[in-house]
Amino acid sequence: MRRTFFIVGPTATGKSELAADVANEIGAEIVSADAFQVYRGLDLLTAKPDASILTKSPHHLVGTTPLAEEMNAEKYRRAASHAIDEIHSRGKLAIVVGGSGLYIKALTHGLAPIPESDSRLRETLSAMSLDELRSKLVELDAITARKIDMMNRRRVLRAVEICLLSGKPASEAVAGIPETGKSIEIPQRSASAAGGVFVYHDREELYARINRRVEAMFENGVVEEVRATGEVSATASQMIGFREIRQLLDGPADAGSISQCVAAIQQATRRYAKRQLTWFRRQTNFSPLNLSMLTHNEAAILLRMLSERRKFSGLRATG
């Protein structure tokens, strides 16, 4: 992770614009660490950086994966590591930007190998009810059952699948299954090797930014964007707002239902941001930076200084 600088934090903090300005100033390239912006399509729903931001510096892993394709932390780690290696081969600093904690942890720590999905087993498990899956997980791995969101069908199913494919509890197969906030650390890669900042806003300001962004999504046509989607993978369908808008499209889209949909997505996004804040506050290798205390230009200057220091220290270490 030398010559790599991380700008991480919750959704709607303005990370993308800040990172693009910094990268433009110092000739760096950006690697996205967003679990959903990696998908091609649904630009509004995923709050993908617009053209004015993307043209400031080269971006990697933004809109590169078809919506029908499954994505996971290990696939991301391989793709991001390849992109970072290529950036370094050009003598440039890589700036990793995003808020998907597990994807970022996959880069800074690595992940233990876990079994790939088995189509026949997945079909069998998919036919089971959520209650049946939960009971099965409690039977196979009570530790994981206590740790994960047992209302999230996808996570419960995957945990059961790991247990059955590996022949041991998921809590032993991996140190916490994906999205629980834990992963096995690879000994040769230390978290201290990763440098960067955890950016955030005061809670009320962050929540107001989230509310405005969701409203802007609807004003700019996110409903039609979702309507036009074709096949969507189980991973991609977990995007915040996708299920809510699909439900809106299945019913009468009157003013009341639209406002309810907006409110539901705002609430879900605020809850997601709260979980992100909790995650990153536990990551001791990233220095916190409260953007509510700074103007955009002040934050950009500070981040430029920190990232340049990272670049030159990396060059000395490799030189």
Kindly describe this structure.
The protein has 319 residues and is α/β, with parallel strands linked by helices. 52% of the residues lie in helices and 8% in strands. The protein has helices at residues 15-26, 51-54, 73-89, 101-109, 119-126, 130-140, 142-147, 153-166, 170-173, 203-219, 222-227, 242-250, 255-281, 296-318, and strands at 4-8, 29-32, 59-60, 94-98, 195-200, 287-290. It has a six-stranded parallel beta sheet, sandwiched between helices. Strand 2 (29-32), helix 2 (51-54) and strand 3 (59-60) form a beta-alpha-beta unit. The radius of gyration is 20 Å and the shape is globular. Mean pLDDT is 88; it is low at 175-192 and 315-319.
Structural key phrases:
about 325 residues, alpha/beta, Rossmann fold, 2 domains, 6-stranded parallel beta sheet
Helix and strand topology:
Layout: E1 4-8, H1 15-26, E2 29-32, H2 51-54, E3 59-60, H3 73-89, E4 94-98, H4 101-109, H5 119-126, H6 130-140, H7 142-147, H8 153-166, H9 170-173, E5 195-200, H10 203-219, H11 222-227, H12 242-250, H13 255-281, E6 287-290, H14 296-318
Parallel strand pairs: 1-4, 1-5, 2-3, 2-4, 5-6
